[in-house]
Every structure is written in C-alpha cells, then in structure tokens.
Amino acid sequence: MSDFNWYVVRAVSQQEKKIKNYIENEAVRRKLTDFIPEVLIPTEKIIEVRNGKKRVREKNFFPGYILVNADLNNGEVLHLIKSIPGVIGFLGKNGGASIEPEPLRQSEVNRILGVQETSQEESVDSGMSFVAGETVKVIDGPFNGFEGTVEEIYDEKKKLSVSVKIFGRSTPVELGYLQVEKLQ
Q1: What tens digit of pLDDT does each residue of 3-44 get?
Q2: What distance in Å separates the CA atoms of residue 68 and residue 8, rounded to the nearest whole number?
Q3: Is the overall model pTM greater than 0.90, yes or no?
Q4: Which DSSP string corresponds to the chain?
C-alpha cells in the first residue's frame, strides 16, 4: 500500500525551479515516478502595470522551500531527494531539519494549494478605484489610445463601462480595470 504525504524540502533560495526539475528528471530516470507524483513550488501571480503595460510575473510564496508529494516508504525516494544538489534537507519537527521528515497536515496542504489555485485566476490590485464621470485613457485592446468617460463600475467583475467617442459618436465599451488608466 502506498502512503503518499506532502513534505517540505528546504532548498537553496533562487534555485527552486532548477531543483524541482532535477527531482522530476531523476525520478523519471530512476523509474520512481510512481512514488513521487508531484513536485510543487508554491507561487502566486502578481499583475503589475508599468508604463501602461500589463505584466504578469510569478512570485514564490515560500522562497527556499519546495513541496513534494511522495511515498517515503521506498528508501530510494528519500535518498534521491536528499542527494540532489541544492537540497538542504526536509523540514522536520519544530521547524528544523531532521533525520525523519515530518509530513504536512492535510489542513496545511489545503491552505497552500488553495492559495496556489486562487492565484491562478488573475487578480487585480484592489487599490484601483474609479468614479463615474471620470476621464480615463484606454491602454489595451482594440480601443488603445482612445479617451473616454466612466459610465458604470462593476467592482465584482473588475470591469468598467466607458463611453468612448468613435467617429464623433459616443459608444459604450466594457473594459477591464487593467485596460484603462486614469488621466491626471
């Protein structure tokens, strides 16, 4: 019977992706993929708007740590993970590195995976707020470069109804918060 648990592996910071790939490749090479089904680096997506351009970047949630779903009853798996360059060891009891790896509680796994899944959906910086009647400039999409007036605000959808003048005629357009910028 397999006994899969999530374990926290301490790794050299800034090398998490390299170590994750190394673990996955070694598991394939040694035919241990049945014992290591998933290796995860907890990240969140951050959306930045700089100079009018939207940029999505990933940020490590826990720098220096990698989550591994594994069955450590097979001694080869434990040895494989510990022997990878850049791996410091498993997180054990009382937060220290121990000889016997301590599995994460299911509640902790759910919290971490929940954060991971919610960050997959693009979240908009809640610091953005618009007021009906305010003038905005469209910075993304087919109306890029046009200016318009905010008519309605749909906070729950993070969208705006903007009245844009096209060929001398006001036309309502629905745009996302990240598609417009405020005019000073």
Answers
A1: 899 999 999 988 999 999 999 999 999 999 999 999 999 887
A2: 6
A3: no
A4: ----EEEEEEE-TT-HHHHHHHHHHHHHHTT-TTT--EEE--EEEEEEEETTEEEEEEEESSTTEEEEEE-TTSHHHHHHHHTSTTEEEEB-GGGSB-SSPPPPPHHHHHHHHHHHHHHHS----TT----TT-EEEE-SSTTTT-EEEEEEEEGGGTEEEEEEEETTEEEEEEEEGGGEEE--
DSSP bridge pairs for 54: 49
Residues forming a β-bridge with 126: none
Question: Tokens 């993970």 — which residue?
Answer: 81
CA dihedral 129, 131, 133, 135 (to 10 degrees): -20
CA-CA distances (angstroms) from residue 142 to 21, 32, 138, 154, 159? 39, 50, 9, 20, 16
Burial of 77 (0-12, 13-18, 19+ CB in 10 A): buried
Dihedral angle sign, alpha carbons of residues 147, 149, 151, 157:
positive
Exposed, middle or buried: residue 90 (CB in 10 Å: 0-12, 13-18, 19+)?
buried
Q: Describe the strand order of the beta sheet including 159-166 as a list of residue ranges.
A: 169-176, 159-166, 147-154, 135-138, 180-182
For 136-168, what is each residue's pLDDT tens digit?
998 888 888 889 999 999 887 888 999 998 888
